[in-house]
Design brief:
It is built from 15 helices and 13 strands. With 429 residues, it is α/β, with parallel strands linked by helices. The chain has two domains: 154 residues, Aspartate Aminotransferase, domain 1, CATH 3.90.1150.10; 242 residues, Type I PLP-dependent aspartate aminotransferase-like (Major domain) (Aspartate Aminotransferase, domain 2), CATH 3.40.640.10. The structure holds pyridoxal-5'-phosphate (PLP).
């Protein structure tokens, strides 16, 4: 039987549901424990960077290229070599980079925190803006939303399209002076793997904002994280912004969490001259210097972007079969039924799965009862609430290919069962 599930006769639908239920019970009897909840690198990916962990002082020496003893205080904004490296990754000169600690999320939190208490570029602290709002690109990254929630922002949701945010809606929303900013993942977005088109980048740089201190946190978490030789290309936002005099609008961040060690690598921010000067002033109060030993180790192995790209190809070798396994199973199980749509990203860490409206939580429960943990449904929306209850983020990086295959089959069967229930209850979409 093929064709849209909603066109099935009642008998055919009952048979379809019975078969899916039998398969589901068989999977359940296996007593599985599989996890596709978070975009963590697998142990094999982490092994790729073990030489970094085992480096000795004899190999790296103790001094940076310009002679700083990395065991001592000093160099608060990053070694020259690591600033150059991130400059290449992020498309700016090293003077526009500050290398920080082990987490880009921490930089983002810190930036918003600074804006809340001290304001940006002479503007009043965001704390004084009682009805402050953030743009939430949906579906989006839960930890971005949580930072904004933590600082008491309301959200204006703007949907993602295949080109990035819906720019007509975004341009209208940012006219409100209480809308202070937005987070975004412009390349291989979390969760749907979209790369912003050149036109989207241009409109983001060109748009008029009601708030003079409107900021875009440009999260380049997956900027070198390609799965294939043929990659998505992201326009250089700082070059584009220069044409419009809006370079100060963009605060770019990146880290090596998914290049070397997750949560134990390096992070960096890149931004305009004016923003760099302002952030340095604050940072000089905040810290005497980040971990230069870790910077030295990273600089030893990764001298330039080519070295990073070689490492990312090794990651891709491990990740690609997992992504392709999920794609193959979803294709085989769900194509043509009209009950689900999913992304086919060329990079990043996630596949975004949209199921029948009102069914995502039920799919999550079915999977959980079968031993498959998914990212909590709703996490891709602010406050953890997906108004249509339809988006599920799949994270195939951590489990083995065999585990991923099983997990994807169970997800597909759960999607079918949920779709049958929705049809029986008269829901559509
Ligand atoms: C889009 C995005 N940004 C940031 C992070 C966190 O990065 P870090 O380890 O540098 O804090 C993640 C982690 O999954 C992510 O998906």
């Amino acid at each position: 039987m093929s064709g849209l599930l909603r066109d099935y006769s009642p008998e055919a639908l009952a048979r379809f549901e019975r078969e899916a239920a039998e398969r589901y019970e068989a999977y359940k009897a296996k007593g599985l424990a599989l996890n596709m909840a978070r975009g963590k690198p697998s142990p094999e990916q982490l092994d790729l960077s073990d030489p970094l962990f085992n480096l000795t002082r004899n190999e790296t020496g103790v001094k940076s290229s310009d002679g700083w003893d990395c065991r001592n205080y000093g160099v608060p904004f990053g070694l020259e070599e690591t600033r150059s490296l991130f400059g290449e990754i992020m498309g700016v000169g090293k003077e526009n980079v500050i290398v920080c600690g082990c987490s880009s999320l921490n930089i983002m939190y810190d930036y918003v925190s600074q804006a809340m208490t001290h304001g940006i570029a002479g503007g009043e602290p965001w704390l004084f803006c009682r009805d402050r709002k953030m743009i939430a690109l949906v579906p989006g990254y839960d930890r971005h939303f949580k930072v904004a929630e933590h600082f008491g922002f309301d959200f204006v949701c703007v949907p993602m399209t295949a080109e990035g945010p819906d720019m007509d809606q975004l341009e209208a929303a940012v006219k409100d002076p209480a809308v202070k900013g937005m987070f975004c993942v412009p390349k291989y977005s979390n969760p749907d793997g979209v790369t912003f088109s050149a036109e989207t980048v241009r409109r983001l740089a060109a748009m008029e904002t009601g708030a003079k201190d409107f900021r875009v946190i440009w999260d380049m978490a997956y900027t070198v994280h390609d799965l294939y030789d043929e990659t998505d290309e992201l326009a250089n936002v700082f070059e584009v912004a220069k044409e419009y005099g809006t370079e100060d609008r963009f605060i770019a961040v990146a880290s090596t969490s998914k290049i070397t060690f997750a949560g134990a690598g390096l992070s960096a921010l890149a931004t305009s001259d004016a923003n760099i000067a302002e952030i340095k002033k604050r940072m000089a109060v905040q810290i005497i210097g980040h971990d230069k030993i870790n910077q030295l180790k990273h600089a030893y192995f990764y001298r330039n972007l080519d070295d990073i790209k070689a490492q990312m190809r090794r990651h891709a070798e491990l990740l690609r079969p997992k992504f392709e396994t999920v794609q193959k199973i979803l294709d085989e199980e769900l194509t043509g039924l009209g009950v689900a749509q999913w992304s086919k990203p060329k990079g990043g860490y996630f596949i975004s799965l949209d199921v029948t409206t009102g069914s995502a939580k039920y799919v999550e429960t079915l999977c959980k009862d079968c031993g498959v943990v998914l990212t909590p449904v709703g996490a891709t929306w602010p406050l953890g609430k997906d108004p249509e209850d339809k988006n599920i983020r799949l994270a195939p990086s951590y489990p083995s290919v065999e585990e991923i295959a099983l997990a994807a089959e169970i997800v597909a069967v759960a999607v079918k069962l949920a779709a049958c229930r929705a049809l029986r209850e008269g829901q559509t979409g």
